[in-house]
Structures are given as C-alpha cells and as structure tokens.
Specification:
Mean pLDDT: 80
Number of strands: 3
CATH topology of the largest domain: Alpha-lytic protease prodomain-like
CATH architecture of the largest domain: Up-down Bundle
Low-confidence stretches: none
Helix content: 55-70%
C-alpha cells in the first residue's frame, strides 16, 4: 500500500490557505465593527465555520498518517473521508442558513454601509481566489481536499455577492439586491455539496470507485493467458488515491502461480490504478462457488 494518501501530499497547501483565511477573518471582524456592517459580521461568522472545516480537514490528514494497529489494520485513512463528509454536512447547513437569511432580509432589507463593505469584500475576494488557486489541483485528487476547496469556493462566492450587492445598493439604493444575491449563492453551493457528500458516503459504504469499471476489470483479468475464470471480485476505495481489490483467480497451472500473481498485480495497478491487491490463486480442480458478498 502506498505510504501517503492524496490529501497528505497537499497538506502544505491546506496549511497555507488556512493561515490566509484566518488572517482575513480577523480583518473582516474588525472591519465589520468599524463600519457597523452587519453583512460583514455575518460573513465573518460564515468564514469562521469554513475555517473550522479547513482545520478539520487538516487534522484528518494528520490522523490518517498514524500507523495501523491490531484493532485498525488499515490505519486511520478513513479519517479523511469522514472529514469530507463532515465538511459536506457543514456546507449544507451554511447553504440553508444563507437561504433563510436571504428570506428574512427580503421581507425587511436592512440598510448597509456599501462603500466600506465593498472594500473589505474585495480583499476577501483576493484571499479566496488565492486559496482556490492553491487548492485546485489537490481537489481533483482527494475528497478531503475537495471539501476544503468547496469551503473556500463558498467564501469566494459570498465575497462576490457582497461586492455585487454593494455596487447595486450604492448606485440605485435598491437594498433587495443583498438577499437576492445571497439566495443565488446558497443555491449554487447546494448541488456541488450534494455531489461531495454522495462520493464520500459511497466510499464509506465501500462502493466501487467511480473511475473503475468492474466489468472491464473482470474482463481484463480473464483475458490474461493462463486464467480460466475469477470469482469473489471486490473493489473499493480506502481513501482518495488508494483503491483496493480482492479476488479469487482460477488458473490452469498452479505451479506457475508466482509469475501469474505478479502479472495480475502489475496489470490492475497499471490499467486500473489499484494500488493494493489481494489475489488468491486457485487450480481449476479447486474451483469454489462465489461467496454471497
């Protein structure tokens, strides 16, 4: 099994983004107090929740590097998936809270100090764009990093909404812009959060990885010279970047088992990116019925 997960390889980037967003949180709190802007203080609360999600993702990465024990023979790799699940749940609450606040403000839109609010929001936009740029590549490799990326994405969208609302309110005095744009942000986040949660739960339920086609995998193994058939084929993801396979393979010559074992292991790693394979070779006279799981 590989020594580190995809998320572990990006932990330095996550630390950098966590530091940047924490510094901006302090600036936003002081700015909200100074300008008497409720919108900025509300966004600071939103960002505080996101920082908690980023910190949780980082803690999960460190936990995943703990050595396996006799009670947890796979170690703590699943901590990263639990963090991604938690981040998705938090993002759902944030989205619904944004929609609720938008509804409340639509009924009675408050007056907002637009100019000062926009200046601070522009700074936040720059910080969040930098964070998204830093985390973008890692978000393609790890669900934990994708959850962190979505946290920063939601902050960036909030900053854009605050800026757009500020421009409209300054130029037209139409304060309904704030709740309408806030609702649009909440609706934009929801489907992406659902996709993150669905992928994380799929891993926790030991579903087949999205990038592995079981029919193609089974066909590729059975096409190898010397293979008669296979059964009890199972493929799942331990954590992002670590796919696991177990199967029984019936071969025509058990005396050639070492060469056959190497050939199968190399093929599933090369063609299907399965880094940890447990393969039981059986002679054709010892073929067993497939187990019911």
């Amino acid at each position: 099994m590989q020594s580190s997960s995809a998320a572990f390889q990006n932990k330095g980037k996550l630390k950098l983004v966590l530091g940047l967003t924490s510094i901006y949180l302090l600036a936003e709190v002081f700015g909200g107090i100074f300008t008497h802007s409720l919108a900025l203080l509300a966004d600071a609360g939103h960002m505080l929740t996101d920082i908690g999600g980023l910190a949780f993702a980082l803690i999960a990465i460190h936990m995943a590097q703990r050595s396996p024990t006799k009670q947890r023979t796979y170690g703590y790799y699943r901590a990263e998936i639990l963090a991604a699940t938690a981040n998705a749940i938090v993002l759902f609450f944030i989205s619904f809270y944004i929609l609720y606040e938008a509804w409340e403000r639509f009924k009675d839109p408050p007056k907002v100090a637009g100019k000062e609010m926009m200046i601070i929001a522009v700074i936040g936009l720059v910080v969040n764009l930098a964070g998204m740029f830093i985390l973008h590549s890692g978000s393609k490799e790890s669900l934990n990093m994708k959850g962190a990326y979505f946290e920063v994405l939601s902050d960036m969208l909030t900053s854009l909404g605050v800026i757009a609302a500020g421009v409209i309110m300054l130029t037209t005095g139409w304060y309904y812009a704030d709740p309408i744009l806030s609702a649009a942000i909440g609706l934009f986040i929801l489907p992406r959060t659902w996709n993150l949660l669905k992928n994380a739960v799929g891993i926790l339920l030991q579903g087949v990885p999205a990038d592995v086609n079981v029919a193609d995998l089974e066909s590729a193994i059975t096409r190898l010279p010397g293979v008669i058939n296979i059964h009890d084929l199972h493929v799942w993801t331990l954590t992002s970047g670590i796919n696991i396979l177990t199967t029984h393979v019936i071969i025509d010559d058990v005396a050639n088992y070492r060469s056959m074992l190497n050939r199968i292991s190399e093929m599933v790693y090369r063609d299907f990116e399965i880094s940890h394979a447990t393969i039981q070779l059986e002679g054709k006279d010892n073929e067993k019925k497939e187990l019911p799981f």
